[in-house]
Amino acid sequence: MIQSEVSGIAFSINSTTSKKDEIVIEAGLGIGETVVSGKITPDTYIINKDENKIKSKQIKEQKLKMSREEGITKCLKGSSQKLSDDMILKVSKQVKEIEEFYNFPVDIEWAVYKGKVYILQCRPITTVNKNNNLIDKIINAGNWNFYVSRKFNWFVENTEIYSTLEKYQKDLLGFEIITKNYLCLNGDEYALDKDFDELCSKFNNYFENDINFFQKFADIEFDLTDKIKNYIKYLQNKNLTILSFTELKSEFEDFNDLYIKSFIPGMTRPDEYLLDCLKKELINLKFNKNDIENIISKISTCPNYFELSYSEEHLSLLKIALKAKKGEDVQHLLDEHISKYDWIKGPVNFENTHFTKEDYLERLENLKNIDIKEKIKNINKVRENNDIEYNKILNKYKFTNKVKKLIKAIRDFIFLRTYTTEYSDHLFYVGRNTIFREISNRTNIGEQDLIMLEDKEISNILRNNGTMDKDIKEILESRKVGFAMIWLDGKIQTVFGNKSIEIQNKIADVYKTLDVEEKSKKVISGSIANTGKIKGIARVLNEYKDIYKVKKGDIIVATMTTPDYVSAMEKASGFITDEGGITCHAAILSREFDVPCIVGTLNATKEIKNGQKIELDAYNGKVYILD
Predict the structure, then answer these.
(1) Contacts (Cβ under 8 Å, ≥6 apart) of 495
(2) Is the pLDDT of residue 58 over 50?
(3) Exposed, middle or buried, 162 (CB in 10 Å: 0-12/13-18/19+)?
(4) Angle at the Cα of 245 from the Cα atoms of 240 and 248, rounded to 5 degrees
(5) How sure is the predictor about 80, in pLDDT bands with cuts at 50, 70 and 90?
(6) Exposure string for 285-305, b = 16+ CB within 10 A, e = fewer
(7) 354 closest CA partner among 343, 366, 367, 364
(8) Of 133 and 387, more confident
(9) Beta bridge partners of 54
(10) What global pTM score does this model have?
(11) Sheet-wide strand order for 182-185
(12) Which residues, other chains included, contact 320 with Cβ-Cβ below 8 Å and sequence gap of 6+?
């Protein structure tokens, strides 16, 4: 209605902290559509309501601006404060007056034009109490443990919901290990301590009733992975352009059904239970502590059942680097390597990405300066020794049949942890670049919009010959802002948009923020994944693009590592992770790369600052901050 110079929204109470004596104003340059739709991150100003004084300001960079005449353009003044202090107080004064007039908390849309404040909309704040009630329910459920941060696109996240449901688990497995309590808040994942006991109880019952339960469980996952392998080949050779909308819908639903099944192994993993159960059995059989530790360390390695792309890729590139170092032409080998492994960069992320030839050429250049022969020899030796040491353990001790079954299951599921994840990820990557691409081409719905829809929404679009309902467009925009999935006592809720970010921040304040003073601790403890001792500069990887900052000799500090981090891990002198045990990705690669590694620190990425000098002592499971 007016040519807004600055616009935004305001709340007469602080809905995040539930403080009724604070007014919150969010502001952006231009028309307010960019603020309410989540296209930009606005400035946030908090004002003391009673005194009308500014308490805090968060100034955000604004890259885009919308105006009536020009539409969306680049924002030239996006890094400065959007609303002057005087105008902040003018807006807050009006917000307070409106709240007093209506006698309830209000949510207001406002705009400023030629020094005048215009109130465009006012409504009661009805969602705050719901959000706060939900936050209270989460907090009252028990002590949540922060697990990991890893945000995927909505189609993938929604598949995670399906994979936790009894219906889908029983269809694949014949039994269920449903998720009762879990949080996935814009990528921040949390679990409850008490649920592990219930999980163990369920696995105990299955195992007590059938000594071969875990062998049958593993066989189901191996069979599933074979089906996925065959379907990937089928999909890569399928001509989707000749299909009708009805046929394409059927093809999409076949893909979706298999993709849900591919997710179930990740949500029903028995690894921790198996290790816990084995320890208890060995204690009951009077094994001493040293023997138990020795047995666990020797069996908890990845067996060489089949080739794993996620670990084979690095070895394959080393072999190419060795030939290149000798002056041989490796172009055809590199092209084959790319066609086989380029998909592992980030197959389930929001962006559709893959490793490029330039990425591999840069990695080959980095590998020139190392002893490649020694590196290859060490990897092969580690893999060979894993099997040798495992067989030695079986021959050395007289285990009961139950213990033998547990040990075999531990080996199987250590392998399956990576094997099933790899093929699930590859399945989505191929599906995205075949079925999703064909749907996108036919419907003119951008591929990055398409992967923010759910399976049922996509099926409806195909049923309607490519037409998307208006309400789906609104939901789509809110999902782009943020999304949360909340499992509470077996019930699942989803929250989108700014509300999901509110919940994420509140839960992070309670469970993710460490109960320590601002200055860092000098010592951090974790589990030893590979022994060694090294000093170096910490590179804290908070997001994927941080891997490009890793230099030779740096020590990687991450919540967790994934196969797409390998180009950085090749340069690093050691790894430290918040999560994971001795069978996680960082642990396995540390042994193959022969670098010290400590996992399961819980808080290394919070305590260690990027660029600090640290000492990684993986003989004692300690990290020392030297700066």
Answers:
(1) 131, 134, 483, 484, 486, 503
(2) yes
(3) buried
(4) 40
(5) confident
(6) eebeeeebebbbebbbbbeee
(7) 343
(8) 387
(9) 47
(10) 0.75
(11) 144-149, 188-192, 182-185, 483-488, 491-496
(12) 330, 333, 334, 337, 364
- ∠471-476-481 over CA atoms, to 5°? 130
Token pair listed for 354: 């893959």
Distance CA 173, CA 164 (A): 12
- Number of residues in the chain: 627
Dmax (CA) for the chain in angstroms is 86
Q: Residue 201 burial by CB count (10 A; 0-12/13-18/19+): exposed, middle or buried? A: exposed
Residue spans of beta strands (DSSP E) within 366-499: 483-488, 491-496
Q: CB neighbours of 332 closer than 8 A, spacing ≥ 6?
A: none
SS (H, E, C) 485-540: EEEECCEEEEEECHHHHHHHHHHHHHHHCCCCCCCCCCEEECEEEECCEEEEEEEE
Nearest alpha carbon to residue 482 among 151, 47, 108: 151
Instruction: Give the integer Cα–Cα distance in Å for 553 and 538.
Output: 10
What does the block give as tokens for 203?
Answer: 């696995």
- The strand pair at 53-58 and 64-67 is best described as unpaired
The residue type at 238:
K
559-576 pLDDT tens trace: 888 877 888 898 899 999
C-beta separation of 413 from 237 below 8 A = no
At 474, which amino acid appears?
A: E
441 pLDDT more than 80: yes
The two tokens of residue 544 are 């994927």
Q: What is the C-alpha separation between 31 and 62, in angstroms, rounded?
A: 13
Spatial CA neighbour of 62 closest among 95, 46, 38: 38
467: left (phi over 0), alpha (psi -120 to 50) or beta: beta
Structure tokens at 37: 């739709």
Which structure tokens are listed for 565?
Answer: 């981090």
